[in-house]
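If you are new to this repository, start here. Below is one unmodified record pulled from the training split, so you can see the exact layout before writing a loader.
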Amino acid sequence: MKRYSMCALVICVALSYPFASYAGDALPRIVVLATGGTIAGVGATATTTVGYAAAKIGVEGLVSAVPELSGIARVSGEQVMQVASENMTPGDWLALAKKVNRLLARDDVDGIVITHGTDTLEETAYFLNLTVRNSKSVVITGSMRPSTAISADGPMNLYNAVLLAGSAGAQGKGVLVALNDQISAAREVTKTNTTALDTFKTPGMGFLGYITGGQAHFYRATTKRHTSQSEFDIMKLEALPEVHIVYGYAGANSFMLDAAVGKGAAGMVNAGTGDGSMSDVMKAAYREARQKGVIVVRSSRTGSGFVARNGEAKDDEYDFVVAGNLNPQKARILLMLALTKTKDTKEIQRIFMEY
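And here is the target side for that same chain:
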């Protein structure tokens, strides 16, 4: 049987199916916001799954390549940016969150799907989980292989994401991540493999559910505050506070920490060894940073587990904050938002326990 590249498929289908499909008033109205990433990537050949060019296909091409969407939703779309996700910035998060909030406030929008590169997908998802002040569904998806690959996973991931966003079960569950037929919570999911299709996992927690047989099946929900329950209002924010991460390792010195503090960092996250531990050298450097007014959060580089307060450091004495089970990249996001409200470490610790 003759194979056709995804690019050819996009062109052929686009000629036969309109971008926005309206198959009846009963169908949910879903807006697809495209940001680029591998799902919009193009490879040199049909077997190219590494070394491809990300963020090349626009939202019209992504949606038109899945004509089956017209049977499950009234889909419209917008290209909000076109980047590989390693280039995503806090400024991009703010712009995206504001757009999502404005769209969800409309009566003619039932849910939103965001296509995104996988490298920082979990970070964007968690930021939106904290800043979208609405209980309507928001689903983020992407792919591990470019659109031109023989085994491209993007079309099915997009179909499942739209299906999930239009389902009643997705309402009120926070921002969801849908890839590889699996449903994950934005707070808990993380990328665990460089290239595998099942790279997204929720260590220690497990998936929220699965998409199979054209239905979303949920088995649990996150208990942490999110979306409509969130206290963070970013609609008038123009920028986020500077927060950086310093990785813990044997023989680490304070070079990177001192540089960040010297450049005016408002907060620092320690991606510590084990239970968020610090060497004596780093502990002294973090204490000095705290005395200068920098908020210090202890997280762990291990990838799972709970960082205990007053465990590997005298957090009460040093006035540090612990991240609980948030990984360093998500602890950074929560600290950035917390710093828009307060510099009181007791209040920031309360925020970390609730979100």
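Two things worth knowing about this chain: The longest strand covers residues 74-83. The mean pLDDT is 94.
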